Amino acid sequence: MKIIDNVYSVGVVDRDVRIFHGYYTPIGTTYNSFLIIDEKVTLVDFVKEKFTDEFLNNIEGILQGRTIDYIICNHVEPDHSGALPRVMEKYPQAMVYGTANCEKGLKAYYPHAKYNFTVVKLGDALNTGKYNFKFIPMPMVHWPDSMSTYLEEEKMLFSNDAFGQHTGTGEALDTENGLDKLIDRAADYYANIVLPFGMQVTKLIQTVSDLDIKIICPSHGVIITKYIPEIIQKYISWSKNETDEKKVLIVYDTMWGTTKKLAEQLEKEYTNKGFEVEVINLTEEHYSHAMSRVLEAKYIFVGSPTLNNNMLPSVSAFLTYMKGLKPKERIGKAFGAYGWSGESISQINEILLSCGFETEEPLKALWNV
User: Fold this and answer.
1) Is 253 assigned a catalytic role?
2) Is 269 among the residues known to form the active site?
3) Which of 1, 89, 182, 203 is the most buried (most CB within 10 A)?
4) pLDDT tens digits, 7-56
5) Per the confidence metrics, is the pTM higher than 0.85?
6) In angstroms, rounded to a whole number, what is the distance separating the alpha carbons of residues 68 and 95?
């Protein structure tokens, strides 16, 4: 797909992937890659290995017999680099550019692949004729090797995982589905992938704020052309762990319905107090779906009955997952039903405390309410 003159999207759509990094992707995703035609031809990023044939066909359809001179590898993760071995077999003369950690990662992932590599750092640039690519390392957004690349003359930021969304339904541009859909999917992506790295995101935003950006090309999801100020502002807010003081998220699972009744009781109580309350039943929704709600909710209430002296596995999975993503400055509350021992409530409370949350008095029910 032509984005602008001389710049093409040559990535692929993965409509079938349902679990990515442990979180649920109900509409699939894309593995984005970009081809820039100049006196020298540049490829920005690869795709997942299983899509290599389609990827090469996309490239060859545009090159029409020309070759690739330079390859910029913004990220070593296999969904970004998996096609490298076969691409290098076809274009062995191409020089690969990336960070020092990228070079280490590629050697580990693809020990038998043959290619030449140039290590780049902040301030380095690549001239391809009329175009200049500026390299912007962004370590831990969200891997140590991560880098974004700025095409100066076209004011395009190839942003890697930053500003990404998992959207495998065919649309290519942010204008096709509007701002609300973009922000909702970007929030889901940020909460499940980028959330632990707020400090590093802040540094990235500070770096790119000096750039004149007209187009953002992330590694997943739609290309952003219209809503650049809005998505950057959201990233600023998310990176600071800013929350809505009037939002409550209730996440629970139930066995015989009493913990559900407690969830409904809390929902009613806080709605009557003027809070915006969202309730997620982990029997019905994947725990990763709750994370985009954790992103902006000040209050996180988690409930489970006691099963074999423990909380239900679905609730345990959610708490383990949330703890790893490190949301900060929240207020938590444990709740749940039990028949004799009731360990789940104290276990939930302990995990909320270990997340750094303040906690309210737990809510318990013996058998029923």
Assistant:
1) no
2) no
3) 182
4) 999 999 999 999 998 889 999 999 999 999 999 999 999 999 999 999 99
5) yes
6) 9
Q: Name all domains of the chain by residue range, CATH numbers in brackets.
A: 2-239 (3.60.15.10), 244-366 (3.40.50.360)
Residue recorded with tokens 């990404």:
164
Catalytic, 112? Answer: no
Which residue among the candidates 80, 142, 286, 289 is catalytic per the annotation?
142
In the DSSP assignment, the letter for residue 223 is B
Q: Which residue stretches of the chain have pLDDT < 70?
A: none
Q: Look at the block and give the residue holding tokens 């929902």.
A: 267
Torsion from C-alpha of 166, 170, 173, 175, nearest 10 degrees? -100
Q: How do residues 103-119 score in pLDDT, each as one tens digit?
A: 999 999 999 999 999 99
Residue where the block lists tokens 């609730």: 315
Can 152 be counted among the known catalytic residues? no
- Is residue 153 among the annotated active site residues? no
Q: Which amino acid is at 340?
A: W
Bridge partners of residue 245, in order along the sequence: none
Interacting residues of 228 by C-beta distance below 8 A, sequence separation 6+: 213, 214, 216
- Candidate list 166, 220, 286, 289, residue with the active-site label: 220
The answer for 144, left when phi > 0, alpha when psi is -120 to 50, beta otherwise, is alpha
The whole-angstrom separation of Cα 327 and Cα 324 is: 9
Active site residue 161: yes
- Of the chain, the percentage scoring pLDDT greater than 70 comes to 100
For the beta carbon of residue 245, count every other beta carbon within 10 angstroms. Answer: 9
Residue 212, burial from CB neighbour count under 10 angstroms (0-12, 13-18, 19+):
exposed
| Residues contacting 284, CB < 8 A, separation 6+ | none
Task: Indicate if 39 belongs to the active site.
Answer: no
Residue 289: both structure tokens together = 């779906």
Tokens of 104: 């280490």
Helix pair angle (228-239, 198-208), 10° resolution: 140
Decide if 229 contacts 174 (C-beta within 8 A): no
Torsion region of 342: left, alpha or beta (phi above 0 gives left; psi -120 to 50 gives alpha):
left
- DSSP character for 191? I
- The C-alpha atoms of residue 238 and residue 192 are separated, in whole angstroms, by 12
Are 117 and 106 contacting, i.e. CB atoms less than 8 angstroms apart?
yes
Provide the residue type at 336 as one letter: G
User: Among this protein's residues, is 75 annotated catalytic?
Assistant: yes
